[in-house]
């Protein structure tokens, strides 16, 4: 399977060199899909938030891991480390840009379905992110973040899944692969410590994200064939 994936990305690199017009069309096309996927996830998250069925449950990790406000780490992961990782991916492996965009689109689309299918409420003693970070950042995030609306978008954890997905993009680059795996683990501990996710959200994120990546490889190859017709 690894050989197939490597051959797939090798063909992408040749294509960006030989057919730039087609390559940028794919960027526009996959960006449109990504925009729809984000809208889809946000819409379903809003629906889940207003549902009367969101009942919190217990979790063994809440007994093991103490509650602590890690808003600054939560902020750094979402607004600095993730964008830097994606930006570096664009710089390091530009031929993968359409595939990366498509993979994120599939990630958000499937996450939206999972969110709307699991009516579990956020723990009542959760720590609201961004509460105790500097006012400059707090002002910034109040404008650009939807965290105040999406309190029950629990399964599966985006903070855990996104850096893990980025690590899969960098799988052939050992240093960056390991960096984003570590970031994923740190974010998992962060959201558990702040009581804004359950253990199943964390565990499920790794399995589902890996499945999304594998599905993206197959699905994107088929989309490429359709676009070439």
What brief labels describe this structure?
9 helices, mainly alpha, about 230 residues
Radius of gyration in whole Å, from Cα?
18 Å
Give the structural class.
Answer: mainly alpha
* H/I helix tally: 9
Number of β-strand runs: 0
Instruction: Write down the secondary-structure element order.
Output: HHHHHHHHH
Write the layout of secondary structure elements.
Elements: H1 2-18, H2 20-49, H3 60-64, H4 71-92, H5 97-117, H6 135-144, H7 158-169, H8 174-193, H9 199-228
Concise description?
By secondary structure, the protein is an all-alpha fold.
Describe this structure in words.
It is a single chain. The chain is mainly α and 229 residues long. It has one domain. Helices cover 73% and strands 0% of the residues. It contains nine helices and no strands. The protein is globular. The model is unreliable at 140-149 (pLDDT under 50).
């Amino acid at each position: 399977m690894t050989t197939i994936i490597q051959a797939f990305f090798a063909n992408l690199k040749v294509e960006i060199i030989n057919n730039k017009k087609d390559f940028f069309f794919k960027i526009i096309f996959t960006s449109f899909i990504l925009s729809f996927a984000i809208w889809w996830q946000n819409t379903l998250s809003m629906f889940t938030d207003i549902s009367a069925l969101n009942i919190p449950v217990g979790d063994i990790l809440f007994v093991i891991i103490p509650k602590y406000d890690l808003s600054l780490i939560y902020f750094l992961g979402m607004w600095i480390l993730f964008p830097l990782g994606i930006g570096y991916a664009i710089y390091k492996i530009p031929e993968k840009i359409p595939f990366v965009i498509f993979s994120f689109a599939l990630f958000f689309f499937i996450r939206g379905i999972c969110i709307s299918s699991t009516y579990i409420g956020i723990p009542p003693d959760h720590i609201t992110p961004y509460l105790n970070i500097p006012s400059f950042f707090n002002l910034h995030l109040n404008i650009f973040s939807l965290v105040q609306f999406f309190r029950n978008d629990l399964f599966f954890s985006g903070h855990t899944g996104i850096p893990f997905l980025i690590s899969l993009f960098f799988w052939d680059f050992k240093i960056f692969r390991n960096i984003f795996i570590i970031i994923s683990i740190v974010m998992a501990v962060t959201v558990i410590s702040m009581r804004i996710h359950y253990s199943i959200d964390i565990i499920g994120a790794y399995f589902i994200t890996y499945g999304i990546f594998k599905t993206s490889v197959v699905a994107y190859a088929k989309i490429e064939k359709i676009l070439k017709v």
